[in-house]
Amino acid sequence: MASVREVSGLKIPAHVPADRVVDFDIFSPPGVEQDYFAAWETIRGGPGTGLPALVWTTANHGHWLATSGELIRSLWADAARLSSKVLAVTPGLGEVMDFIPLQQDGKEHHDTRMAMMRGFASRYVMAMEPQVVDVARELIAAIRHKGSCEFMAEFAEVLPLHIFLTLIGVPVEDRIRLRPLGDQLTRPDGSMTVEQLRDAADDYLAPTIADRMANPGNDLISRILSEPVGDRPWTADEAKRMCRNLLFGGLDTVVAMVGLCTLHLARHPQDHALLRDRPELIPKAADELIRRYPTVSVSRNAVVDIEVDGVTIRKGDIVYLPSVLHNLDPMCFDEPAKVDFERGLTPMRHTTMGAGAHRCVGAGLARMEVIAFLREWTSAMPPVRLDPDKPVAMRGGNIGGITSLPLLWDVPASV
Ligand code: HEM
User: Fold this and answer.
1) What is the mean pLDDT of residues 337-365?
2) Region class of 309: left (phi > 0), else alpha (psi between -120 and 50), else beta
3) pLDDT tens digits along 10-62
4) Which domains does the chain have, with CATH numbers?
5) pLDDT per position as a tens digit, 153-171
6) Is the beta carbon of 354 within 6 A of some atom in ligand 1?
7) How far does the centroid of ligand 1 lie from the alpha carbon of residue 249, in Å?
């Protein structure tokens, strides 16, 4: 047990210098309900900011927090010294979820990840596009005539869930069964513990997994499960934890991204018009919006002592890495807050999808989903605007995002 000292009644490990101690709660950065991005700017550190690039926050049982873009990116890529076993700063959450491949390290991670990467090969992702387009069209058709909606509940939270179910080959009627579970995954109301949520997801997925292991089809899960893990087949337990990772990793993240793309278009109707008139710009626009609106932060546990930024991260310490402070760091990107569809950066430069060994295996699928959404949204919907009487609401946490996005539009005459 590391020795601790007390500063203002708070227990601080002895190896943490006093000038690194802050009180910053990653679940509720100051002002996050109004603006996730502005809230995180309050803790930006590194050269020229007056704050160190690595601080120790006393919130959430105490953990390191990297605050400069360069340090975030380099620690994120350091899988040899920083394990992802811990999953989150919330005690016990890692043990409950036990995700594959997210919480694996070394060869174990390499072998399951390779099987998944083959299942997510770009030719398969492109083959899924017509199904994603169908889902987006169906949802747009359901709201287009209304002239207003709360976009998160009525669209953004439904789209990835329906896409997920379609891609794993679950019948359309089953969407209704999974919807309450999807709601709990993306908008937990406290009525289920994380264990109950995990078990409900596992129970829901179990028959599909068993069926796809016995009778592989053309769906995503069949493709991944028919790829070997190293030189052997997937075990049933691994298949369960992998599918759990897909479900928990591929919903909230896409919900947040679709919400933020739509918020951007509502605030910049000229971009809506541009993408409608020049749809060939949409792939580049998707890449830039994905860079500009990062909401995923990850937690790592040090497996050795690490000397960095003039301090020691002790073996066992947790380090928190927010992609928002990397992608919007002016030391890493020119005018980072500006959305420039011609920026032309490779998606590997930013950390919306992570960096290094654990970089998102669903990145190609997510990009395709965002492209398909932007194409359908800008072509079928008139420019939308924010409802002046109802505020946009956001939230912090490991996957930040929008909780309420009230939109208005003039119903097209053709509807
Ligand atoms: C815009 C949407 C998405 C964002 C922003 C996103 C972000 C991320 C990030 C930052 C990581 C790295 C986590 C880490 O380093 O600890 C990650 C990993 C992962 N993501 Fe995504 N993701 C998205 C969509 C998806 C989708 C659609 C799926 C699958 C259906 C998916 C499945 C996964 C999996 C399985 C991993 C673990 C990879 C590994 O550990 O090797 N993600 N994602």
Assistant:
1) 95
2) left
3) 789 999 999 999 999 999 999 999 999 999 999 999 999 999 999 999 999 99
4) 4-408 (1.10.630.10)
5) 999 988 998 888 888 888 7
6) yes
7) 5
Please name the residue whose Cα sits nearest to atom 14 of ligand 1.
358
Alpha carbon distances (Å) from 183 to 148, 201, 247 = 21, 12, 12
Which residue matches tokens 């359309």?
172
Q: Residue 259 and residue 305: Cα distance in Å, rounded?
A: 39
Task: State the Cα angle at 98 between 97 and 104, rounded to 5°.
Answer: 140
Between the CA of 30 and the centroid of ligand 1 the distance, in Å, is 26
Q: How far apart are CA 261 and CA 378, in angstroms?
A: 11
pLDDT at 228 (0 to 100)? 97
Gap from CA of 109 to ligand 1 centroid (Å):
14
Q: Which residues, in sequence order, are bridge partners of residue 229? A: 232
In this predicted structure, what is the pLDDT of residue 7? 66
How far, in Å, is the centroid of ligand 1 from the Cα of 16? Answer: 31
Q: Given strand 385-386, what is the order of strands in its sheet?
A: 148-150, 406-408, 385-386
Q: What is the DSSP letter of 399?
A: B
Q: SS3 of 294, please?
A: coil
Model confidence band, residue 187 (pLDDT cutoffs 50, 70, 90): low
Alpha-carbon gap, residue 105 to 241, rounded angstroms: 15
The reply to whether ligand 1 has any atom less than 6 angstroms from the CB of 364 is no
3-state class of 230 per DSSP?
coil
Distance CA 350, CA 343 (A): 12
pLDDT score recorded for residue 1: 42
| Closest atom of ligand 1 relative to the 366 alpha carbon | 27
Which helix (H) or strand (E) covers residue 109, if one does? helix 106-119
